[in-house]
Design a protein that fits this description.
This protein has 199 residues and is an all-alpha fold. The protein is built from 13 helices and no strands. Helices cover 63% and strands 0% of the residues.
Amino acid sequence: MNYTSHLQKDSLLAGILGSEIHELVLHKNIPLRLIASIMSQQLSTKVAAVIFKRFLEIYNEEEPTPQQVLDTPFETLRSIGLSNNKVKYIQNVAAFCLEHNITDTKLLAMSNEEIINLLVQIKGVGQWTVEMLLIFSLGREDVFAVDDLGIQQAMERLFNLDATNKKLLKENMLTLSEPWKPYRSYACLHLWRWKDDKN
C-alpha cells in the first residue's frame, strides 16, 4: 500500500502531501551514521557535511570502524571543527558500539523501541538523535519525532495547536499522529518539507 493513500485519510495532512513521494533508505555502517548525527547536532546541513568530509579524510576517504575512531587522537578529531564535548560523545559512541557489539545485523533485528532504549544509554545520545537514525539510516517507516522543533512548529501551524504548554502540545501531537501509523516517518518528512517551503 502506498503510504500517501493512508495519510490522506487525515484531511489536514492530506492538504500538504503534494505529489512528491518520499523514500526511506537503509544505509550501511549504522555506528558511523550515529557518529555523523552527533557531529551534525546544532549545525546547518552544509556545515555538517563539510565536517563529515574532513572526518573521512582522516581515514583516507574510507569509512572507519569504531576501533579506528577510538584509536584516533583527541586533537586530530578536534582539528576538523568539533568541540571537546562532541569529540567525547563520538568516542563514547565508538566505545559503546565495541563493548556491546553493535552491528548493522544486530540493529536490523531489533524494534524501534529496543534500539532507542539501547542507544540512549550512550552519553551524548538522546532520543531525538536515535529517532533521526531510525528514519534516515535504518529506513524505519513508523517513527514519530515528537520532540523535534520543526515537527512541533509544523503541527502547531497545520492543526492550530497551542504551543504555550509543551507537555500538552506533545500529548496533542501524539493523539493526532495515532491514525498515521504505521507510516508516521513519512508524515514527518512531509511536515518538515512543508514547514521549509512555508518559511
